[in-house]
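Human: You know discrete backbone vocabularies at least as well as I do. Show me how you would write down a chain together with its backbone fold. No explanation is needed for now; the record alone will do.

Assistant:
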Amino acid sequence: MDGTGSACFADLTHALTTGMPVYPGDPEVEIDEVLTLPADGCSVRSLHLGSHSGTHVDAPAHVIAGGRTIDQVAPEELMGDAAVLHLPDLTTRQRIDGEMLGEALRSGPENLPSIILLATGWDRFWGADDYLRHPVLTEDAASFLVRGGVRVLGMDMASPDGSDSADSLATHEVLLGADRLIIENLRGLTDLPRHVEFTALPLRIAGGDGGLVRAVAKY
């Protein structure tokens, strides 16, 4: 709440723009105006982008054969009370393990919140080379979250796994293999209090492996 008692809302979404940062190997984002007001009486834009462009959610089908697709994810799975874990002063490619998460949560892997947002501040590098040199979650950290019943893990980084070609998607496999959801490329998490109401609803893409979201926090 602000000083007047009114709720505060924070948009945690990166804007979609032509040429915006994308994960290595993903389609580039191109947005073109194909109809204009002067010529056509209305404005319409074409979008060329990948299903994991900008702020988005990974469905299990992203890396798990037979996993749920994004149109099979119920809206209420991506809405609710969220714990914001502030993890300041992390360094390039620093490993975040289960013990570190437990200390930030002040809890062991039992009765954890269903939604956890990792506030590392790495979104400050959005558009710079260092953005892809973000910290990474260990498989132990992913298992810690699964054991605690966490359904959604969001972060202000490009991925819970490393971006080097030699890196595997082991953390993705642990989380998505347990039918959890991952939200990547959030922004502004470090400005949030420890507990918020969170919503991040994806486009309903039939058979989709993920979907772009508009992520919002209320507090």
Summary: The mean pLDDT is 95. The chain is about 15% helix and 25% strand.
